[in-house]
Amino acid sequence: MTIPLYYQIYRNLQYKICEGFYKPGEMLPTEADLEKIYGTSRAPVRQALGALENEGLVLRLQGKGTFVTKQVHSHPWFTATGFVNVYEQYWDQLSTHTLEISLKIPHEPDIKDFLSLDKNEQTTYLIRGQCIEETPVFVFEHYLPPRFDISIFKAAGDFISMKEMLTSKFNATICRVHEKLAVRIPPKKITDYLQVDEHTPLLRVRRFFSDNQGKAVWVSNQYVFTEKWEYEMDSTLNY
Question: 28, 100, 117, 137: which has the fewest Cβ within 10 Å?
Answer without folding.
Answer: 100
